[in-house]
Amino acid sequence: MQSFLVKVVIILLLMVCLGYFNEKVTKFTYEISLMLFSIVIGAVLLGIGAGVKGETAAEILGQFQFVNLENFLTKGVLCFMLFAGSCHMSLRSFKTHARTITLLSIGATLLGAVFYGLLFYGAGRLLGLGLSLPVCLMFGSITAPTDPIAATSILKKFNLPKNIGFIIEGESLLNDGVGVALFVCFSGMVTAEANQGFFAVMGRELLGAVVVGLAVTFLVFPLFKRTEDETRQIFASLLAVSAAYLLCEIFDFSGAIASVVCGVMFSALRNRETEAGREMELEKFDIFWEMLDTLLNSALYVMLGLSFLRILTMPQVLLLSVIAIAANFIGRSCSVGAMSLFAGKLPDGYDRKNFVALLTWGGLRGGLSVALAMSTSSMLPETIYHIVLGGTYAIVFFTTVVQGMTMKPVYRHIERNLTKHAD
Fold first, then answer.
1. Helices (DSSP H) in 155-197: which residue ranges?
2. Given pLDDT bands bounded at 50, 70 and 90, which one contains residue 320?
3. Could you tell me the CA-to-CA distances from 395 to 53, 323, 357, 390 in Å, in that order?
4. What pTM does this model have?
5. DSSP readout, 29-79?
6. CB 3.0 to 4.6 Å from 172: which of 5, 146, 261, 367, for a disulfide?
């Protein structure tokens, strides 16, 4: 218990102090500031430890990893973070953009993983890293899915057009299952235990999760709408998403997708109640999920920032980070560009070039990619594992901090281009 409380106190102290400093001084986007300043604090502690205590970088970095990020996400809070991000999603808006979101979440994720894997494989051959093609494709499946937590917590602050913002958010919420299916398929190739093809894995991960999410929601929501106690409504929503995630863990489905389905269905069903003239008092419900979302996101970005310094243990760190970031950017751009050819009419008057540019730069990565990278430790040699983990951290840092901080000027530049062409 004491160890747990120490970890909680450290994370909360950083969240409060860094958040206050950012509010009064730097005024960055909140989540970006937590990650960026946590990296700075970690670097300072690393320097002090190396200079005063005489410890090696690996020893000091091991002390920073006081929370298992993979377990924190996949066996802890991921389901609640995804539910919080999707429980206010408009099902009507999803129907409007279903074709585009489906193409991006499935097609762009698949192509992005393949493009990235091929690019990194070629770079690995030139550098003599000894990376096999299955390892590089698995690496691509780790970095291809955009992160729903980053999308919902960062991009919504930049006042993107409603339709474009919904497409980015919808893609990031739905492509987790595709990414996990790709990861299972390619990691099976790496360990020479692949018994199922991609579509079989994706069918189980995706369709099974949808069935579980719908079933649990339709069982729990009648209790949710009939109770007059707002606290019990919150408990019912917690029960629904945690039960759906647990069932997916048992049956080997995608718990991430089931959590999103629960959130979207709760939003749709409560809207149906409102349209039918049966108003529901959900002020506490909305406040609770907003506060929980902020708390868990803040903790995640602090842990990501402190964990980021593990990239320093990777051989040829600078060169491999640049290659990983460049391959990810090219893979994302090419995959989105290919899928945009089949998307039909683009929303908000966007032409194909500017649509691809915006979605490429808005393709943020986050904790889920890091958790998948960490899960490869048992199947890869230590040197290759460090390359995969370090490359993933580099991509997460670049997309979250660099792309996240420059998203607003990039969007303004695209808007000016659209206005110029319209004139």
1. 162-190
2. confident
3. 31, 10, 18, 9
4. 0.84
5. -HHHHHHHHHHHHHHHHHHHIIIII---HHHHHHHH--S-HHHHIIIIIHH
6. 146
